[in-house]
Design a protein that fits this description.
- Helix content is 35%, strand content 22%.
- With 170 residues, the protein is an alpha/beta fold.
- It has a single domain, classed as Alpha/beta knot (3-Layer(aba) Sandwich), CATH 3.40.1280.
- The strands form two sheets. It has a six-stranded parallel beta sheet with strand order 3-2-1-5-4-6. Strands 7-8 form a two-stranded antiparallel sheet.
- A hairpin with an 8-residue loop joins strand 7 and strand 8 (167-169).
- It is globular.
- It starts with a strand and ends with a strand.
- Bound molecules: S-adenosylmethionine.
- S-adenosylmethionine binds next to strand 4 and helix 6.
- Its EC number is 2.1.1.206.
- Its main location: cytoplasm.
- It is an enzyme of class 2 (transferase).
- It is found in: Cytoplasm.
Length: 170
Amino acid sequence: MLRLGHRPGRDKRVTTHVALVARAFGAKGIYIEGEDENILKSIEKVKNEWGGNYFTLSFIKNPKKLVEEWKNNGGKVIHLTMYGININSIAGTIPDLDNILVIVGAEKVESWYYHAADYNIAISNQPHSEVAALAIFLDRIYKGEQLNIVFGDSKFLIVPQKAGKKVIKK
Ligand code: SAM
């Protein structure tokens, strides 16, 4: 994952939610443009209690360099944008899951990214949210399997209940 244009203060909650969705639904890590220690603390706390220690979070200053290096190393870059090709039109053509960098923006994404991306994918051609776009994109590529993820290194385990909460300390 690459989260562009993070504005500390204003985007703290949304960027944290992008990172939480990425971790919970199977991404290996997230790069965030900018710097915000509060997000790092929130994600570390979740990893510590609920597992997924392999999930990495890094703050970067030069996201264009990351995109170029990703492509030079043979990876593919997918930019989620309402202006892209509707995911319903391209389902089945998205490459190797291990090697993709998924980009979401905050406010306006520079046109450079629209041209650098291998795919500009729209999760409907309506404006909504980077959190929703990411969740639906991951659902499509993992075909629902991401909802069964269990992190072996968690301290707690939820026992699903029809009513109430049951959590086991491991
Ligand atoms: N009009 C803005 C733009 O320039 O794209 C929308 C910004 S939106 C608040 C923030 C991010 O959410 C976008 O950069 C994009 O990654 C994601 N997003 C919003 N709607 C989307 C959609 N329909 N499909 C895919 N991604 C979307």
